[in-house]
Write a structure and sequence with these properties.
This protein has helices spanning 8-13, 31-43, 55-68, 71-75, 90-106, 108-111, 114-135, 153-170, 174-177, 184-201, 205-223, 225-241, 249-274, 276-289, 295-308, 312-322, 330-347, 354-371, 377-407, 411-420, 430-453, 460-479, 481-488, 491-508, 521-531, 550-558, and strands at residues 78-79, 82-83, 514-517, 543-549, 566-571, 585-591. It is mostly helical and 600 residues long. Strands 3-4-6-5 form a 4-stranded mixed beta sheet. Strands 1-2 form a two-stranded antiparallel sheet. The radius of gyration is 27 Å and the shape is globular. The chain starts with 7 loop residues before the first helix and ends in a 9-residue tail after the last strand.
Length: 600
Amino acid sequence: MPHRFPSPFHTSILPPTPARLTALAATKLPRWGLLALCLLYIVTGLVMREPWKSEDVIGLAQMWSAYDGGWAQWLAPEAAGVAVSQEGPLATWVGALCMAIFSPLLGHILAGRIPNLIWFGIASTSLWYGAYLLGRRAEAQPLALPFGGQPEPRDYGRMLADAALLLFLATLGILWRSHETSAEPAALAFHALAFYSLARMLDHPRSGALTLGLALGGAFLARGFPAVMPQLLAVAVLAGTCPALRPAARWIALFSLPLGLALSLAWWVATAQLHPYWMSGWWHWNASVFGMLTPRGLSDVLRNMPWFLWPTGPLALLALWRWRGYLRSPHVQIPVALMLAGLAMLFATREPVDAEYLALVIPCAMLAALALPTLRRGLINALDWFAVMVFSATACVVWMGWIAIMTGVPPKIARNIARQTPGFDADFSLFAFTAAVAASVAWIALIIWRFRSRPTGLWRGTVLSAGGVVACWLLIMTLWLPSINYNKSYREVSNGMAHALAAEQARTGRQECVRSSGLGLSQRASFAVFDNLRFELSGDCPLVLLQGSASVLRNALQRGEYAGSRVLWEGTRAAEFRRAPQFREYFILLRPVPAGRPVS
């Protein structure tokens, strides 16, 4: 049990703590409510959703290639025969294992999404326990009241951990990334594990150093140097500047760094020996990430960072000011070091993508939780009212859009949606409607409970933000999901091409290879995931699949290289018809006519 008050050494150098609250403010949040919220958050968006044209379907294709292939696809991940020499293999490994175990029961698409549950479990658990360990330390305790009544250290630490986890759920930037079958959820999980490990090392240096080694190795295997560099930088700074971590520095040198290096080299050396071309591409990708931030990259930072720092960013800045006298105390110094390392990595990246912001999410959630005990009641209530207004308005917009899709009323909204999803025919789903009604009722009940019961727990300032995110996410993934799938999925295109190939195989009596020209990686991955269609990159194949704009492909068929070819199938996603013809994505499957031979 940690001490309630700082040691005499600390009391002589530290100013009065800015945290002031009573034991009632550290009232325990019901575990079932927190677990149910986490479960709804991660499960919604994994089921009933098509793989979308993005890293989502590419990640699934990599898992499928490893599951359906051999050791070559495990060491050097590929998507439908194309080497994907970037990021790392860990997400592919875990996904392929889940497909091997659960595909007979769930199908390979849903089985490939089980790793998202694993990564979210690691991230949320690591954040909660790391915040708990730091929150129950003597330096973090609130001001002792004259006649007692302040919370116990364990209760106070649990309150901060609950608040940090709720703020994590309320972070808008990670909402989609947490549900995507890519390397990003794994990288976020190991950022959280590194945070927990540093907090663990304060009391248990050896076990904390071991988990830190796993975090370093896991981050490298998940996404290479861009994921592991912020952790290494933060560890180096803390090992030299944090007095409470200095005794653990030797365990970092003995356990963490060798373990992380061994895990990384076990894959790195084998792949470099067996697949040097793939590893050369991997090195090139890693090198291309680092560099001076470009003007375009700066513009992206200014546009995207608020999504990953709301609502935690403003509260984190407030915590830095309120706890400025405790910057060398572990409960402040550890998240600050991780946050500054994440910012350094962000500004050392030429053109940051969403994955570069993930290193900021965990430390900002911890700092934001530390700001809550320093806030006045009026400001906490203002945060609640802001969450109620924003998420209630969002829920109304989602419902209004669904009504417009189903009924055409209001007509202006219906026309705008129709322009984005041309040809979409909406079907009423009783399950989706019931789930959406339940989510709306639960959101209203949460608001009524918050303002009628007036809970004393300090987590009350975050529960509405987290609950609002989950409720709106559930509404979107039920009411709008069919139209989003229609707009972002290639299932119908893939099915049409598969039927055309089957018909041609029946006509000729033989199975023929298909060469692709201009086929994008997302499209190639989609055809592999939906119908296990594989296309050669080159070679003398009797069939050719072309991808390009409709006008360019028509010219190629009329006057270009493929003039006189027999067209077996042509198509596009119906959603493409919202674009001008010269920009419309189009596919044509054809049998080229050999030179000098008449068309049959």
